[in-house]
Structure formats: structure tokens, C-alpha cells
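Quick question, first post here. What does this chain look like in 3D?
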Amino acid sequence: MSEYPYPSNDSVTAVMRGNRKKDTRPEVRVRSILHRAGFRFRKNFSVRAGDKVIRPDIVFTRRRLVVFIDGCFWHRCPDHGTSPRSNSSYWGPKLDRNVARDRMADVLLDQSGWTVLRAWEHEPPELAAERIIRAWWSCAPENMDRE
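> Answer (accepted):
Ran it through. C-alpha cells below.
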């Protein structure tokens, strides 16, 4: 692993500090739509999968459905992901590790009986919520109330 890079200027530092780990704008928008539709869930809830603890953005515990809202930059969106030109020897491997961690989390959660759904931050929140609701119903035992 390469050494942590020094930011090229103060504005880069400000932008990177502004990136949130949880409660990002896309997450909040999707959660708000789900909540208004009457769905109840846990946010950033620790899920044990194998020997790992994974923290999805949205968790429907009884349905064993987890949702991740992935940022285009951090998770290498095929449509919008970019590779930084500055400090590329650091960022390339860093972003590759993020994607590898995502794939490993998907496998571990699946092996532990969870349904995994991923949405990109650029996906309209209404469409992401619609996909989540369809997945929620497909994971549903008959006659179970909304969580």
C-alpha cells in the first residue's frame, strides 16, 4: 500500500473532509421516500456475516434485506466513476480495495441468508426506493406487516 498522500491544496482538503461516511444526501432521500411509504428499517445497523461485521445503509431485519447506496467515486461507478490524476498511486489501489470489499460483503451477506441490493448515488431516489420496495415484497413471508 502506498503512503497516504498529502492533498494538493486546501480546497481539495475541504472537499475530502466534506465527504460523509453515512447519512449522505442520496441515502437520506431514499430513506425518506421509504419512510413516507410506511416502511420501517434500521440505518447503518451492524449485520454479522461470517466472521465480518458489515454496516449496510438500510437494513430490513425481519426480511433479511440489506441496501447499500454506493457513491459513484468511492465505489467506481462504471458510468460516473473517475480515477484521480493527482496521487493516482494512492487512489487507484484505494478505490480497487473499496470495490473488492463491496464484492466480498455481497458474497458474505448472501451466504448468511441476506438479500443484497445496491443502488448508485446517481440513480433517481424514487427509482431506487421502488426497487427496494419490490425486493422487500419478494423477501416477504406471507401476511407479514411492514417492519
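The first helix runs from residue 10 to 18.
Strands lie at 42-43, 47-49, 52-54, 58-60, 65-70, 115-120.
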